Amino acid sequence: MENYSLLLDKQRAFFHTGTSKKQDFRSNALRKLKDSIKTNEKKIMDALKADLNKSEFEAYTTEIGFVLEEIGFTMKNLHKWMKPAKVKTPLTHFGSKSYVYYDSYGVAFIIAPWNYPFQLAIAPLIGAITAGNCAIIKPSELTPNTSEVLQNIIESIFPEEYIAVVQGDVETSQALLSENFDYIFFTGSVPVGKIVMEAASKTLTPVTLELGGKSPCIVHKDANIKMAAKRIAWGKFINAGQTCVAPDYLYVHSEIKEEFMEKFTFAIKELYGENPLENPDYTTIVSTKHFDRLQSFLSNGSKFHGGNADSETLAIEPTVLTNITWEDPVMQDEIFGPILPVLEYNSLSEVMNGISNHPNPLALYLFTEDKAIEEKIINNTSFGGGCINDTVFHLVSPHLPFGGVGSSGIGSYHGKGSFDTFSHKKSVLRQTTRFDIPFRYPNFTNGLKII
Ligand code: NAD
Prior knowledge:
It is built from 14 helices and 20 strands. The chain has 451 residues and is of the alpha/beta class. The strands form five sheets. It has a seven-stranded mixed sheet with strand order 10-13-14-9-8-15-16. The structure holds nicotinamide-adenine-dinucleotide.
């Protein structure tokens, strides 16, 4: 195992100079990052095409455009966020004032997955920089072209004692995890999240875990069916279903199931054509291992739509499965591919029980026109975040902290959420020395004592 102590020592020494904490330095770093991403836009797109066959449109909207927006929003707000926040002081503390200072942690470790390999490495980095930290990024070994471009971008604008990219596989990740970081930000699977948390516990390093899970999507009988069909097809099959917040399975009310399924099939064809395997812009599955796992689900239940796959290109058609039960293999773990099982329901209590009897989802989507039903589902089910009458879109708002709950993750980020995540909230009470209130002292006899 390689030893990364030297790199960490360099970053910690740089951090202790205080340079990374200065507002101008943070702003400049964000500006450089933004400019470099813009300059390298074509290279990033080419790398994403090579790694995942991502179309330019998807590469821009879900990776490049997303992080450029995030940097722009952050730069606008940096000054405001960095200012110590004055908070209320109780009467018992008369004479003093209370503040929360946002303190940089030090050296952060960012571990990224392969499904949005550029965005999921850069978005946490924006948070780390904004909060004045140094950082080491370990991108995914499954998307080597994107990791290479990422490393070139970072090395061309930042010295390694400030921000560094270390490429490598599990062994590299574990060697880095054995170092003493000040913060660990992990995006990936639930089992690896547990490994990361265990490693962090040895040094009591705080962690954010952005994990996955089976995210339900409920289509109630009063939903706008045409709109639901289109928005679910988009959120499920974008990136060939390899999205942490993609609808994992559908709960469709029995009264509208037939109509919904017809419109849903139509929506899929509108998005990807009659033969998605021939569509040059249809994202492929990241590896043979993932392809084989997904292909094994194609025999679950009955194929309602799609079901074909190409083992040469690693593409799987958008596939809809019916006659599915919770016992089927496709319902045991997060699918993370273009396969959508459909469950039918008659009452919302069936839906709520089904969701509550399984690990907390990262996202939940509900299509209904009824406010009372919205409130019922929001207040009676546990999930990281989600949308009413849409899918995936909550993730792209810088005003909404994004993260899981329970087994789908710990902590959140995006926008101010990223700054908060990478900052320690240091509470400071500034006391007056003009007088002393003696009530707290055991020998109190007189009233207020003026010094
Ligand atoms: P993964 O957990 O296999 O790998 C993620 C990263 O961890 C990679 O960089 C990998 O090299 C490293 N890693 C793998 N095994 C490790 C180990 N034993 N010890 C230390 N490091 C290790 O995840 P993945 O397959 O790259 O990504 C898919 C998963 O990520 C899905 O479960 C998905 O839901 C989740 N995800 C979550 C979010 C989110 O924001 N919540 C976003 C994208 C993906």
